[in-house]
């Protein structure tokens, strides 16, 4: 198992590369969901101002 | 042959509902392909005869670099459609692409640097491939900055679309940089007309990652697109049903 994490001596390069890419994936999910939630909240506020909202 | 499907794609409520319905069909296959590709790339594939285990960076570097180009091309095509036919949904697609492309361009540059240091002896070189990829990051950031700087959505759509379309000339430059100029970077080993130059045990996980990342882009794009479509609609009554849910 520890042999796996050593990556044949390239651990200092392989794992940070995987970490950065994984971070890009996770952040894309978080940011996209947040952007959608923000748009919905803004739309709700717009409707409320016009007296049509919930 | 009717064109109704094409016209419906210009209709915000239809696009919003379609995007919501399609998202899981992209997200779940993407998750399975990426997990499978990681397993294949990190565990099953044998070490490279020259680069040892260092070559495994390819499984995150190549898909990130592929995303950086594919997302930009999608963005430029959507921007052009928006400019030519004045379709709001097309501008919404283009605007949704930029943050996704920028993040993977950044990942491509960082993973490339982490691969370059042990194999070439340097994290960075002002090499044609590396420099043109850095310019791609600046194009994404410029596009996002331009959009953020313009208050009026219609104006920011049109201005940013022009930038996206003009910037697309960088895409073939990046792709062919390794053949046009002397480059530290290797030539393509998968994205080429002749047979790929990798063994199947190494190639299959890479293809899974490439397809997985592409589907992941689709899923994130669809979520972002809903937000963009929503923010472009001022008064339409269909919005009420959505925000009430």
Describe this structure in words.
The complex is a heterodimer of chains A (54) and B (245). With 54 residues, chain A is mainly α. Chain A is built from 2 helices and no strands. Chain A has helices at 2-6, 11-49. The model of chain A has no long low-confidence stretch (mean pLDDT 91). Chain B has helices at residues 4-8, 12-44, 58-85, 88-120, 128-149, 153-167, 170-180, 200-232, 238-244. Helix content of chain B is 76%, strand content 0%. Chain B has 245 residues and is an all-alpha fold. Chain B is built from 9 helices and no strands. The A-B interface holds A 4, 7-10, 13-14, 16-18, 20-21, 23-25, 27-29, 31-33, 35-36, 38-40, 42-44, 46-47, 50, 52-54 and B 34, 42-43, 47, 52-54, 56-57, 60-61, 63-64, 99-100, 103-104, 106-107, 110-111, 114-115, 117-118, 216, 220, 223-224, 226-228, 230-231, 233-235, 239-240, 242-244.
The sequence of SSEs of chain B as H and E is: HHHHHHHHH
Quaternary state, please?
Answer: heterodimer
Largest interface: A-B, 35 and 42 residues
Overall average pLDDT of chain B: 93
Structural class of chain B: mainly alpha
A few lines on this structure:
Chain A is built from two helices and no strands. Chain A has 54 residues and is mostly helical.
Question: Notable features of this structure?
Answer:
heterodimer, A: 54 residues, mainly alpha, 0% strand
List the helices and strands and how they pair.
The complex is a heterodimer of chains A (54) and B (245).
Chain A: H1 2-6, H2 11-49
Chain B: H1 4-8, H2 12-44, H3 58-85, H4 88-120, H5 128-149, H6 153-167, H7 170-180, H8 200-232, H9 238-244
